[in-house]
Amino acid sequence: EGTLYPSDYTGIYDRRKFLQSGGFDPQLSNHFWQKVDWGTRVRLWGERICCAPYKIEYRAELPIEDVSYEDSYRWFYLKNLALRFNGESGELSWFRFPSFLLRSAWVPWKAFRIFRQVRQWVSEHKFRFKMDSRRLVELWGEEE
């Protein structure tokens, strides 16, 4: 069964593929968004995360994950949801900046700096993208 979320970072990872994917992004300080970012990126780049039923027993109470929409979410949004796949590569168009600025709650120069930084990252990895988030949703659950 496919997933976008490696629960508690638990898994058996193919080291080579994990390193090629860039691993978990240290720019994202929120662990929830860090895991979702990696899982989504892997899918958008044409790979899969498979999960099997398993049981982990914790000896203490599990910490509650912070799923709030803060800075880590904004990075995740730009890197995974805002970009579009044009059939050959992924791209983060400057046309998406005004709506990002309005929704980011950041001062304009910070929003511009982060947008430009993520746009550069997308450009560096543009040919690794095999789809965008819209296509991922359309294909979710289908066997490949």
Strand order of the largest sheet: 1-2
Q: From the helix content, strand content and strand pairing, which structural class follows?
A: mainly alpha
**Biggest sheet statistics:** 2 strands, antiparallel
What's the β-strand tally? Answer: 2
In terms of DSSP E residues, the strand content is under 5%
Order of SSEs, N→C?
A: HHHEEHHH
Total of helices: 6
Low-confidence stretches: none
Taking all residues together, what is the mean pLDDT?
88
**Count of all domains:** 1
Shape: globular
Helicity range: 40-55%
Rg over CA atoms: 16 Å
Oligomer: single chain
In whole angstroms, the N-to-C terminal distance is: 12 Å
Please give a handful of descriptors for the protein shown:
single chain; 144 residues; mainly alpha; two-stranded antiparallel sheet; 6 helices
Protein described:
The protein is an all-alpha fold and 144 residues long. It has one domain (7-139). Helices cover 44% and strands 3% of the residues. The chain is built from six helices and two strands, in the order αααββααα. The protein has a two-stranded antiparallel ribbon. Helix 2 (31-44) runs parallel beside helix 3 (71-81). It is globular. The mean pLDDT is 88.
What's this model, at a glance?
The chain is an all-alpha fold. 44% of the residues lie in helices and 3% in strands. A two-stranded antiparallel sheet has the order 1-2.
